Amino acid sequence: MKLTHDIFLEQQQKLLMTPELRQAIAILQMSTIELSEYISHELEENPFLDEKEADENNDGEKNPETEDGSGRTEEWLELFHDRDIGLNTREQAEEKSFDNFLTRRPSLYEHLEFQLHMIYKNPDDLVIGNFLIGSIDSNGYLSVETTEVARQLGISEERVLEVLEMMQTFHPHGVGARDLSECLLLQLRHYGKENDMARAIIEHHLTDMAGGKVNKIANQLGISIQQVQDMCDLIRTLDPRPGLQYGNNNEIKYIMPDVFAEKVDGEYIVVVNDYNFPRLTINNVYENILRQPNSFNRDARKYLEEKMGAAVWLMRSIEQRRMTLYKVARCIVDIQKDFLDHGVEYMKPLNLRQVAELVEVHESTVSRATTNKYIQTPQGIFELKYFFSTGVGSFHGSQKISARSIKHMVEEIVAAEDSTNPLSDEAIAAALKKKGIKISRRTVAKYRQELGILSTMARKRY
To answer: Which domains does the chain have, with CATH numbers?
Structure first.
């Protein structure tokens, strides 16, 4: 066998993940709020990007004074003059604005510190109390051992327990507890409903209560089933996480619909929500500078060309995102029209492949276009991925029924059942089969667990 080195030509097709392609994919996945923030950031970073004014496209004619850069001095002076007037007017308005008198809700720690300052007896109580408050987690539980607190502060554990007992009288009730049982008992004590039966269930039978094992609790405590049921109902009214009543306001996340679907004259109109986006355009001044190659050196020209390319690609990627999102949303609305008209019972089974074939894109593109995107419909605001669900066979032909529709039926069946004789999973499956749905007991049990519906024994009322 002869070994030689040969040179030959070969054509290959490869998909290269260029920075521009990565940016386009990232923009496609962004929600409306994220894209708005991204565009604002790019406007600050890229000198070639400029925000188009609202009335700039009304007549489609360019102002020659603006195009060649002359006359800008007068415009800038006028702009700054208007800005000064606007600032003065705004400052006068803010002095009398009602917003200046508004305040935010105090956090859990601020609320506890306020109560501590109102009730402490000596400076030592204040030091110990502040240490304990700093050791309370967002749920309202003490996350450190009292022995560790005593060691850190160089005091006795009894002194720490005294201050902790004082803090456990604070609002929200149950705060400062070291475990769930203590938290529930503190709340019962505050409401004046603490008794031996409730204490026994909280301290020894919380797991059985969660599983609905009322008979087991009654047998072990030697009381009637009705008494156990009443105590369990009382315990369920308590708050297992009292600290969340004063959650951090900064964690609130607002949903802004990315797409609107409105019914007009019997037809659904789909509109992509891009009203809050700055309208981008190329800055005329820098564009004219780039057309003068002798005005700057090679490095400066390379920098300007890169920024120019990035600006053009960003505008193209935003437009591509808008078109892709519109096509995907349009397809979903057309398929789920019965859901939009009548509700979740009429939802049809749908998957990414069906939409990808209709829109003529890859499944991954549909997945990215529907990630963290919301649509506002006559039925409410839903995530676009909400409309994708598996299907279950039907006795009426080959048509399948959406799993979400079946889950809604299960909820309605359980809500209408007799609480003294709740339906089993097999009985629910039989009721669904009467409606023409092919479903097994195992599938009903799976859907019931996903919906958070308790088992038959746990739902039984005595």
So the answer is: 108-246 (no CATH), 259-387 (no CATH), 391-459 (1.10.10.60)
